[in-house]
Structure formats: structure tokens, C-alpha cells
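Co-fold these.
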Amino acid sequence: EPEVTQTPSHQVTQMGQEVILRCVPISNHLYFYWYRQILGQKVEFLVSFYNNEISEKSEIFDDQFSVERPDGSNFTLKIRSTKLEDSAMYFCASSSGSGNTIYFGEGSWLTVV
Amino acid sequence: DAKTTQPTSMDCAEGRAANLPCNHSTISGNEYVYWYRQIHSQGPQYIIHGLKNNETNEMASLIITEDRKSSTLILPHATLRDTAVYYCIVRGGYNKLIFGAGTRLAVHP
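Predicted complex below.
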């Protein structure tokens, strides 16, 4: 069964450092998402991406965050200067159409120290 | 998207059916009911969705009331591996998923 894959599974970084989280969406999917989940809290929407541009973003997704689809397969989330409060599990997701089922990856656990 | 209300937690004996309720009284005509689950801290896993008809797949059944104001997810024979947080989400056709707190289902031997 096709799946969304994410790397790394766990990353520890120092405050102020840049982090890039990588995702390979399901191959025929066109809509891409990033969500995050701080430990013990809800899964929160960050951003959606379609046709090489952001289609929607939440208040969490400020200037420190950016997304990119650098080639035909990868979808990345960059945090420019990490803060302690960025420590969370980050989930990538994709769907084949804007109203179609969204499938999630297993997540990248980011720890900022 | 309409809000949903789910019990905070539920218990179920292994091998029995788990019936997880969800209220969505403000749902509008073009909004779907989606169910996902999250096992420990893994990624949310899609289970099933429906608009107004009952749906069944290999994982579960979804029963939606005629007025669409509530629904029930049924896991017909719960196993220990079904222990998870279950999310009921109402979604407009083109919208992102918005997760609530969900129901923490504990399946015990």
C-alpha cells in the first residue's frame, strides 16, 4: 500500500539552528500538508500546498517556516531559526485531490534544546 | 467546518464491538464525516468517511443518523492493537482536516 514517508524520524537540534524536515508524498498525489503535534496536545494544521504554492496556512506558520517542493518527489518543511517551543512531532500528509482522503506519514520528532 | 463532540475516553473488552459516538449537530449538507485514529504518537491513520449513507470497509463501519447530526464508528471485533485515540472530523469538501481531542479507546483483555 502506498504511504507517505518522512525523514528523519527524530532530530535533535540546538535553539537557533535551521532544520529541514523531508517528506515523500504518495506518488500520484497533488496536495500536500504539514501538521504538528506538541507532546500531549492536539494535532494542529500548519500549511497546505498545491501547484507549487501555499494554498492555506495557519497562524502557527509564521515567517520562520517555509515549505518547498524542490523536485518531483520531495516536500520539505524548513524552520529557519528553531525555538524551544518548536519541539513537536511534525506530520506530512498528502491527498490526490483537494476533497479526497488525506494520508499521513509517521512523523518526524523534533527536539530543540 | 462543523464542530464535533466526542467522549474523552472509552473502554472495550477484546473481541467485543467498540462503538464510538460523535455528535456534529451543526453539520451542513456538503460536509463529510471522517474518522482517523492515532496509535501512540504515530501519524493519524485514516479509517473511514461518509456523507449520509452508512459505510463499511475492512477496518470499521460508520453509521450516520438520518438527520446527520451524529454518527457512530464501529470496530466489530476490537483487538488490543485498536487501543488508540479516535478522531471524528467534519470536513467540507475542499478543506483541511481540523483535529479535536478525540476519544481515547482502551481495549483490555
